[in-house]
Amino acid sequence: MEITLNWYLYLSAILFxxxxxxxxxxxxxxxxxxxxxxxxxxxxxxLVALSQTMGSPAGQxxxxxxxxxxxxxxxxxxxxxxxxxRNKLTIDVTExxxxxx
Length: 101
Hints:
Number of strands: 0
Number of helices: 3
CATH class: Mainly Alpha
Shape: elongated
Largest sheet: none
Helix content: over 70%
Oligomer: single chain
Number of domains: 1
């Protein structure tokens, strides 16, 4: 049994859907950040699979940039969560009212 492009695309679609569901239905900031990372990894799987099929390394090069952005997003997001936790003592998104005047 050979693993074709469709298997990678199905896996990517499932991971992306899990990330969207986790982001929309969970109110914990850490879980929301993990869901964003899951969506970015699903896109990375698609990019690598399609670049491998087409024979061009452009998708694999783009994956390195996406991984760098994901690492920066995780570091900045975690710093914001720690700063918000110090003020509110919770990481539940519904408890934050930072944008109210």
